């Protein structure tokens, strides 16, 4: 039993270590949590798991307009994109459960374009990021393959 628990812990740490991208805005732990959310929900729909893609994460970073905090998803061509903006109840460090998970839950619950991007069995990879501008939090995910 101990060996099984140890194996699960080591496996989880290795998975997080593999999700290191050059974008320092998103921690490896939050990357893993975003990927796990996608894959847990996709599994419930009988869809294959997604892989994290640092290049897609970097594409997601390009949508932010730093001068005004707006998001322009039109900058990303040929990929499905989900975006979500909200005012968190408190400022501070971004936490998955408080700040990122609500966006993912919203997308999944809508059963429309956002959901279709998350659940599409043709999608093989995902990359997500977020940005805080003043008190506004923006979460963006980009999916592959190309459209």
Automatic annotation (TrEMBL):
Cited InterPro entries: CAP_dom, CAP_sf
Residues annotated as signal peptide: 1-15
UniProt domain SCP: residue ranges: 35-143
Keyword hit for Transmembrane helix: no
Domain of life: Eukaryota
UniProt keyword Signal, yes or no: yes
Key words, A-Z: Signal
Name of the protein in its database record: SCP-like protein
């Amino acid at each position: 039993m101990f060996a099984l628990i140890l194996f699960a812990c080591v496996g989880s740490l290795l998975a997080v270590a593999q999700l290191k991208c050059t974008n320092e805005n998103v921690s490896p732990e939050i990357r893993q949590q975003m990927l796990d959310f996608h894959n847990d929900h996709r599994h419930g729909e009988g869809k294959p798991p997604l892989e994290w893609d640092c290049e897609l994460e970097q594409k997601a970073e390009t949508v932010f307009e730093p001068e005004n905090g707006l998001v322009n998803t039109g900058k990303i061509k040929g990929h499905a994109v989900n975006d979500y903006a909200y005012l968190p109840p408190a400022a501070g460090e971004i936490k998955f459960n408080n700040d990122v998970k609500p966006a993912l839950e919203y997308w999944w619950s809508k059963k429309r374009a956002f959901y279709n991007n998350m659940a599409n069995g043709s999608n093989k990879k995902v990359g997500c990021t977020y940005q805080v501008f003043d008190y506004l939090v923006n979460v963006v995910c980009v999916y592959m393959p190309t459209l």
